[in-house]
Write a structure and sequence with these properties.
- It is a single chain.
- By secondary structure, this protein is α+β, with helices and mostly antiparallel strands.
- The chain has helices at residues 2-32, 180-215, and strands spanning 37-40, 48-55, 64-70, 77-80, 86-90, 94-103, 109-116, 125-127, 130-134, 138-141, 158-160.
- The protein folds into two domains: 2-30 and 191-215; 35-179, Uncharacterised protein YcnI-like PF07987, DUF1775 (Immunoglobulin-like), CATH 2.60.40.
- The protein contains two helices and eleven strands.
- The longest helix is centred in the last third of the chain and has 36 residues, at 180-215.
- It is globular, with a radius of gyration of 23 Å.
- The chain starts with a helix and ends with a helix.
Length: 216
């Protein structure tokens, strides 16, 4: 009887530990999505790239009504992609999306901009500041990201250029290098999935131990 109780307590502890790991892992993607992030289809200098910006939160809980993307002057061209439920206005170096219906806090959506990347050295960082306007308040994602320094409170979405590569037709052949914010987001998702798997295993161990105890 003592052994059965001990096994049950051990299984319960294991389940609790894995459950806690699951909660932490799930929280990681939520934390990573707290910023407006950008993921490029490629980063080779002089190439065309699709920049996918993602937003999954409002302004301290207030629904998002508009987002204005500022494009660096060095970028030769920019073409916004139509996003259902959002109207588009453009100027020389900005693209503004305005929501027909405000985007509720906690709901995620994406915006794609097709750009021609500049002929600059590999390692050059391009910042794409984003002004997020909400029903109440706004957030200016425009603080520069500096390599080797702590991330600011409201970092500007950015990408880092890689070497120029040509296939003979002016198209880049270099594969995309993820921006630091994009990489953090992918890592957080992986951790979240791993946590869910481990949590499930812990629960299964606890249930199995419980069944053994009942049979005895």
């Amino acid at each position: 009887m003592h052994r059965t109780t001990t096994r049950h307590k051990t299984a319960a502890r294991v389940a609790a530990v894995f459950g806690a790991a699951t909660m932490l892992a799930v929280a990681a993607p939520m934390a990573a999505s707290a910023h407006v992030t950008v993921s490029p289809s490629n980063t080779a200098a002089t190439s065309y790239s699709i920049l996918t910006f993602s937003v999954g939160h409002g302004c301290e809980g207030s629904p998002t009504t508009a987002l204005t993307f500022t494009v660096p002057e060095s970028v030769e061209s920019v073409t916004p992609t139509v996003t259902p439920g959002w109207s588009i206005t453009t100027t020389e170096n900005t693209v503004a999306y305005t929501a027909a219906e405000p985007l509720a806090d906690g709901l995620r959506t994406t915006f794609d901009l097709s750009v021609k990347l500049p002929d600059l050295p590999a390692g050059e960082r391009l910042e794409f500041p984003v002004l997020q306007e909400c029903e109440v308040g706004s957030v200016d994602w425009a603080e520069p990201v500096v390599d080797g320094e702590a991330e600011p409170a409201h970092p500007s979405p950015s990408i880092v250029l890689t070497e120029r590569a040509q296939d003979g037709h002016g198209h880049a052949t270099t594969e995309a290098a993820s921006s630091s914010s994009g990489s953090d987001d992918v890592l957080a998702r992986v951790l979240g999935i791993a946590g869910l798997v481990l949590g499930t295993v812990g629960v299964m161990v606890g249930v199995k131990s419980r069944r053994k105890e009942v049979r005895k």
